[in-house]
Structure formats: structure tokens, C-alpha cells
Amino acid sequence: MARRAEKIVKLEEIDRTGLIREAYRMEGVGAAECRTIFLDWALKLPAGVSQQEAVALLLKTHGKDAPDHPMTAILRDGLGRAARKGRRGGAKARRC
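The structure assignment produced for this chain is given below.
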């Protein structure tokens, strides 16, 4: 199967509604709220945009100034998990 071409991402395209930007501005926001915001952001990511590239750009833009912010931790975690591909489970995995 041919792999689709992924375009270069711009901050304005990947955070159109400012969800991630606003998460960094919120007072007292916790990890649970940041996970919810990240999921909402990820569901709105435009087609053809690499999730890893988008998360890396968000980390570069927002995370460098707030390394201890819960959203930075969530973005780092999302960057690591996005790299995992392939099948999980199936009949072969259930055999003893």
C-alpha cells in the first residue's frame, strides 16, 4: 500500500482553535485536564498532517518555556506513543 505524503506543518494549521496554547495559560491545570485537551486537539488534527511532527512543533513552541507544565509532559508522552506502529494482539498472540 502506498504511503500518503505528509505535508510540512505550521502552528496555525495544527492548533487552529488555540487549545494547546490556552492549556499553557490556564492557572492550576492538571495532568488529567491536559490529557483531555490533548485528545480533543488530536481528534481535530487536519488530514495528511503527521501527528509526530505536529506534537514536536508544539513542544518546540510551548514546551521550551514551560518544561515542568503538565501539558509538556503529555506532549512528550504523545510524541513517544505515536512512534509505536504495527499489529497488536490477534490470534497468534492468544495462543499459548
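Interim note for the steering committee: Helices lie at 11-14, 19-25, 31-43, 51-63, 70-82, 91-94. The longest helix spans residues 31-43.
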